[in-house]
TrEMBL record:
Classification of source organism: Eukaryota, Metazoa, Chordata, Craniata, Vertebrata
Protein name per the record: Solute carrier family 2 member 2
Species name: Cyclopterus lumpus (Lumpsucker)
Database matches in SUPFAM superfamilies: MFS general substrate transporter
Family: Belongs to the major facilitator superfamily. Sugar transporter (TC 2.A.1.1) family.
Domain of life: Eukaryota
Amino acid sequence: MESGKQLTGTLALAVFTATLSSLQYGYSLGVINAPQKVIERHYGRSLGVWSERAAVPSGNATEEEDEFQEAGQHPAVVMYWSLSVAIFSIGGMLSSFLVGFVGNLRGRIKGMLMVNVLAVAAGLLMGLCKMWKPHIMVISGRAVMGFYCGLTSGLVPMYIGEIAPKVYRGALGTLHQLAIVIGILISQVIGLDFVFGNDDMWPLLLGLSGAPAVLQTFLLPLCPESPRYLYIVRGEEQEARKSLYRLKGAYDATPDLEEMRREKEEANKEPSVSILSLIRSSVYRQQLLVALMMHLSQQLSGINAIFYYSTAIFIRAGVTQPVFATIGVGVINTLFTLVSVALVDRAGRRTLTLVGLGGMCCCAVGMTVGLTLQNEYLWMNYVSMSSVFLFVSFFEIGPGPIPWFIVAELFSQGPRPAAIALAGCCNWTSNFVIGMTFPFIQTWLDSYVFVLFAVLLLGFTVYIYLRVPETKGKTFEEIAAIFHKDRKKSTRGPEDAAELQQLKTSTDA
């Protein structure tokens, strides 16, 4: 019966409910950007290093007043501000290892429900930050929110991938990334100074990052549990059948259950590889390197430098209303994610990633030229602006959405959870490094800051061209065979077999 392939209201509700977490992740990424100056002034006052008069006691008052007319110029404020931005990623780094554990503990639905406590707590810490020391409260709230987002950035794609019908799996899977960019856009719009990005309302702006979790908490009990979790992990065939009927309507569920039975058998045959075993193993080394490089190329491309600090970049480029230019970036971000949804199953993962990284490399060069020559030629401002917009467009075509789901395609059932955990940790760690160091790199390199990203992008483009196979339309066995063929050139087959047997023995023990 074909009705099993149709999109039902229950499936739509389940996907919408799950992606509320992705929306929250995007909102938390973007919310810190627009009200930067307002928050810096509150930090300066709270730390006692800045006042409205910019009166800093010193032997040379004139120079000091010039230096600290803006609260954000004080080293202590710079440090706390950078930490407010980057602590979000520390939370994500720590929790990314726990995705598999939380997802399997009580199920995908109850897992998402449990971690919503963190999101609400984080929202309250930031929303009530004026009641104590704003810098401590905001940094604490951002850390807890990061911990929450590290968990949901794994749980959401896992749940959607498991409930989506095969024919819609690609399109529904990319809704995770689409919800993230919509979240960024919402945070930019309500972060405008005449909405919530002002002296009175900025704590509410930050506190609202916990709001989607409240709505999700009411909707999650209405969503069916993942049939794959129920059958493969819990062994509850009847419950899995009920869940399939809820998701797909009245249809013959036998083929789906048969597919799950085969997957369960394969999973039982294959060793469940620990994170440490995966790092040490030569059998999976090439796949792991490719997975980590894909995630590094996403974060070290410079995209978060634009998300976090776009307002400052537009001010340098001479834009009179930089916040609106930043919102323009958010709109383009969303539109080109939709383009990626349409293209990813046609053009292929490798092609889109290469086009994206190559385009971003050219844009980084364009941005550097524009920022360097903006004082000599007025039209160079337009070069800088166009480069920023194109940079974001190329990112969302490939390097943005693809690393999140290609890791699952590169690994079979046994090593997949460990590989996803390692790739997630790599993603969040590099996100943290960029968030923490970018203001200092910008001060050091000035207009040439994007030369660094251009060099990195060129390196990633060359690596992916040489090492990453196309996974579009291939089975897990076919993808593994590509890596196995490459490995045969340097190692002998029996050694690999022996190592796989050793991995299985160590897991059984």
